[in-house]
């Protein structure tokens, strides 16, 4: 069983509340990393926009195409 199959199997057992809680946990982890590594927060706002566009491109393409 590949990693993708295992991930799909685990995701199938979760309901919407579990998925949302996992997303909030991920957001909290990212905030903790930003707090522990201050240079990350010193970037200009447009770098965060570029990073989000690059990171969301594949999931959005997968959803709508």
Descriptive report:
The model has no long low-confidence stretch (mean pLDDT 87). Helix content is 78%, strand content 0%. The protein has one domain (3-64). It is an all-alpha fold and 65 residues long.
The gist of it:
Helices cover 78% and strands 0% of the residues. The chain has helices at 3-12, 16-36, 45-64.
Low-confidence stretches: none
Amino- and carboxy-terminal Cα gap: 27 Å
Rg computed from alpha carbons, rounded to a whole number of angstroms: 15 Å
Shape call: extended
Q: What is the total number of structural domains?
A: 1
* Number of H/I helices: 3
Q: What structural class do the secondary elements suggest?
A: mainly alpha
How can the largest sheet be summarized?
none
Strand segment count: 0
- What share of residues is helical? over 70%
- Amount of beta strand: under 5%
Residue-averaged pLDDT: 87
Which series of helices and strands comes N to C?
Answer: HHH
Per-chain topology:
Elements: H1 3-12, H2 16-36, H3 45-64
Name its key features:
single chain, 65 residues, mainly alpha, extended
């Amino acid at each position: 069983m590949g990693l993708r199959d295992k991930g799909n199997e685990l995701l199938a057992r979760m309901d919407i509340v579990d998925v949302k809680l996992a997303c909030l946990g991920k957001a909290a982890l990212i905030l903790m990393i930003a707090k522990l590594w201050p240079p990350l927060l010193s970037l200009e706002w447009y770098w965060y926009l570029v990073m989000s566009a690059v990171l969301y491109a594949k999931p959005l393409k997968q959803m709508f195409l």
